[in-house]
Task: inverse folding
């Protein structure tokens, strides 16, 4: 441990169970000396095991629906009282798509579901920062981080409308990050993480394929949840005080790859099998 966050206080959104990246961030933040409040939507608190994490890290859990300004205001006010003042870091690790859950194809969405997913996954980031900004809750040189995915820039067909949500999330980080930086000296960034086998991610059709493909494409392989937590902590720390408005790729190099030898070898094997199949049939 490096005591990277010694004396720092924060709020961590989105820890559901031990697979969650937010869960790993909380564990590592605790190890590095931080104190924080944990929060998630009331329904997620009933489904997950966040109470275990709270006990392990000595944290309080405050339910909050990130689509509700009233809930967020209550969360911020309670956190200020529990933590004894302003905070230094926030993790936004929230995302869901009702269309994905219901199996609706991207070309045939239920737009009420689309709006719900956008509200939860993206607009909640703006809403959260608005409350933090208006209440002047962030300490100078504080850090706000949102988790995103490469589908905001490239086509992953089965990622569905979550790709649109992530693109909007990244835009909010830049736009609101400008005002937070100019007025409060607070950093706002997003981390574009490798596909990670979380409870939320596993709901995407073909997600195992995403993971396997990205791992073969990336020269360093996929980044794990705990490695993402370490990277997140570096952005919470004072070592990155001038890093803001960035979408930072934490993906083993995937984002700069065109093709890898591992993928090409697999492709050539399948091509060879297809070419050999007609020959075998002809011999028979």
Result:
């Amino acid at each position: 441990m490096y005591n990277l966050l010694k004396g720092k206080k924060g709020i961590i959104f989105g820890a559901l169970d031990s697979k969650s990246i937010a869960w790993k961030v909380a564990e590592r933040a605790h190890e590095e000396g931080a104190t924080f409040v944990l929060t998630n939507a009331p329904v997620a608190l009933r489904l997950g095991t966040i109470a275990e994490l709270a006990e392990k890290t000595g944290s309080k859990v405050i339910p909050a629906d990130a689509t509700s300004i009233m809930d967020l205001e209550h969360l911020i006010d309670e956190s200020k009282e529990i933590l004894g003042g302003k905070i230094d870091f926030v993790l936004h690790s929230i995302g869901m798509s009702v269309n994905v859950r219901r199996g609706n194809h991207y070309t045939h969405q239920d737009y009420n579901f689309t709006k719900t997913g956008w509200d939860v996954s993206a607009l909640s980031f703006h809403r959260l920062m608005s409350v933090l900004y208006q209440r002047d809750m962030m300490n100078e040189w504080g850090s706000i981080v949102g988790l995103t995915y490469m589908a905001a820039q490239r086509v992953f067909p089965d990622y569905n409308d979550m790709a649109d949500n992530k693109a909007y999330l990244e835009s909010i980080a830049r736009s609101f990050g400008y005002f937070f930086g100019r007025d409060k000296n607070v950093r706002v960034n997003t981390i574009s993480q490798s596909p990670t086998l979380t409870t939320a991610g596993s709901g995407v059709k073909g997600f195992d394929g995403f993971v396997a493909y990205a791992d073969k494409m990336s020269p360093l392989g996929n980044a794990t949840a705990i490695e993402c937590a370490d990277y997140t902590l570096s952005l919470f720390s004072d070592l990155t005080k001038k890093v803001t408005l960035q979408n930072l790729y934490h993906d083993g190099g995937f984002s700069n790859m065109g093709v890898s030898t591992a993928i090409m070898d697999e492709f050539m094997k399948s091509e060879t099998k297809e070419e050999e199949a007609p020959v075998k049939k002809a011999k028979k």
Summary: The two ends are 66 Å apart (CA to CA).
